[in-house]
UniProtKB/TrEMBL annotation:
InterPro entries: Acyl_CoA_acyltransferase, FEMABX, PG_Glycine_Bridge_Synth. The keyword Iron-sulfur does not apply. It comes from Streptomyces lincolnensis. It holds the Pfam family FemAB. GO terms for biological process: cell wall organization; peptidoglycan biosynthetic process; regulation of cell shape. This is StaO.
Length: 383
């Protein structure tokens, strides 16, 4: 599903900077927008310079985007202009009318390339399809399975980007330096809690019941002490699962910036069992789009299923808030049972949702020589 449905362009809109207040007002007028396209996210990414841009038809604001500017090493006057999961424009229209003035503006202001990620779907696969694919040794990837439904806008956007000289950046395995092309989502619109439970697999339903029976209590965190408790558990999880954790300061900045923009934007969930913190998660919501952003779990007491309790609490709250989708974020497209990433796929498939492929991230070189130098630099450092 596309995140939002902005106003269609009539003629060629004009791109110019807008204030954070104008940007926030535009976001609030949409059904849903990626939190990566809110002004607050620019304040979280402190290592990048950010700006809000608007598309105008006359005096009317009809599109908006958060641009993160990444400088080139030893060439600080040039930047990579990055619009993660954006911009928020009418992707069903003539995209050249939207992206051409963006390129003109950004090149005039020092960008050597633009990177963007259209929030447009190209394919979906049901939980049953994914489960059958994992069990079938002849199926290695999601793309080996037939997609469900028809997504002509996604196909058209991909084709027109390619024809206009944009270069696809999505890696073969689905995970890279940018944001994921493949995600797992649970549709919520028109459903009840009972219906959501019924479409989960037996293990998920059993784990949710087990957590309740064991007396796991899920509460909403508040204040620095709860955030520190989450971070301690998150660092423990990183050590166990062998990934590099973000520092506490990052989460302090994230909660402060997103909460200042909207007090309901970000929520911390804590699952306790007999006084022990056994799991913690972070939910981010913009309009009707709820996102599972971060999670952590204790190695001890895993049998009480605190992680499932947190997930169910977030899904219920997203449903109560009128959200259309609960977004579990990235997966790899692998369905090979021997691939270490397939465990994450199995976990998310248990929710009964669907796998979704988006258009992915694309680059437009504006200064080809600088872009080639940047690309070589990124390849040498492993991106």
């Amino acid at each position: 599903m596309s995140y939002s449905e902005p106003v269609r362009a009539v003629g060629n809109p004009v791109v110019r900077p807008i204030s954070a207040a104008e940007h926030v007002a535009f976001v609030r007028a949409q059904r849903s927008v990626s939190f990566l396209q809110t002004p607050a996210w620019g304040r979280v990414k402190t290592e990048w310079r950010s700006e809000s841009l608007g598309w105008f038809a006359g005096r009317r604001l009809i599109g908006a985007g958060l641009v993160l500017h990444r400088p080139v090493p030893r060439l600080d006057r040039f930047t990579l202009a990055y619009l993660p999961e954006g911009p928020v424009i009418d992707w069903g229209g003539e995209i050249g009318a939207w992206l051409d003035p963006l390129a003109v503006y950004l090149k005039a202001h020092g960008a050597f390339a633009i990177r963007l990620g259209p929030p447009v779907v190209t394919d979906t696969w049901s939980a049953a399809q994914v489960k059958e694919g994992v069990a079938d040794p002849d199926i290695r990837r999601l793309t080996d399975l037939p997609g469900q439904g028809s997504y002509p806008v996604g196909a058209r956007v991909s084709r027109r980007l390619k024809d206009a000289g944009w270069l696809p950046q999505s890696p073969q395995d689905g995970f890279g330096v940018g944001h994921p092309q493949f995600k797992y989502e649970v549709p919520l619109a028109g459903r009840t809690e009972d219906e959501l439970l019924r479409v989960m697999n037996q293990q998920w339903r059993r784990n949710i019941k087990k957590a309740a029976k064991e007396g796991v209590e899920v509460t909403v965190g508040a204040g620095a002490q709860d955030l520190k408790a989450f971070h301690d558990l998150y660092v423990h999880t990183a050590e166990r699962d062998r990934f590099t954790p973000r520092p506490l300061r990052y989460f302090e900045t994230m909660f402060a910036a997103l909460s200042a923009e909207d007090p309901e934007r970000i929520t911390l969930y804590l699952a306790h069992h007999q006084g022990d913190l056994v799991a913690a998660t972070v939910l981010v919501r913009v309009g009707a789009h709820a996102v599972y952003a971060y999670g952590a779990s204790a190695t001890e007491k895993r049998e009480v299923r605190g992680s499932n309790a947190c997930q169910w609490a977030m899904i219920r709250d997203a449903l109560a808030a009128g959200c259309d989708v609960y977004d579990l974020r990235g997966i790899t497209p692998t369905l090979d049972a021997d691939d270490p990433h397939v465990g994450l796929v199995r976990f998310k498939v248990g929710t009964g949702g669907r796998a979704v492929r988006y258009v992915g991230e694309w680059d437009l070189p504006l200064r080809p020589m600088v872009y080639r130098a940047f690309d070589l630099y990124m390849r040498r450092r492993g991106r």
